[in-house]
Amino acid sequence: MSVGDVIEGGTYEMRVNARSYRGEGIGKIDDLVVFVKNAKTRIGKVYKIKITKLHRTFADAELLDGSAYLIGNGSLITA
To answer: Alpha-carbon dihedral of residues 62, 66, 67, 68, nearest 10 degrees?
Structure first.
């Protein structure tokens, strides 16, 4: 499945522009809103992500190895 130039299973670099109340990083690839699951990301940073599920108006993604993220106690983790 694809929406515009974004395909499910594809890898992209995305800047996180916001964070949801559940701790998901929120950003855009082209005009598609992307939620990065289980990632306590820093707003304004660029992360490598993989699209795990593509919906009609948004996508779910996960961080790829080598991306840094914050855990609950505020520690920065690099995989």
So the answer is: 130
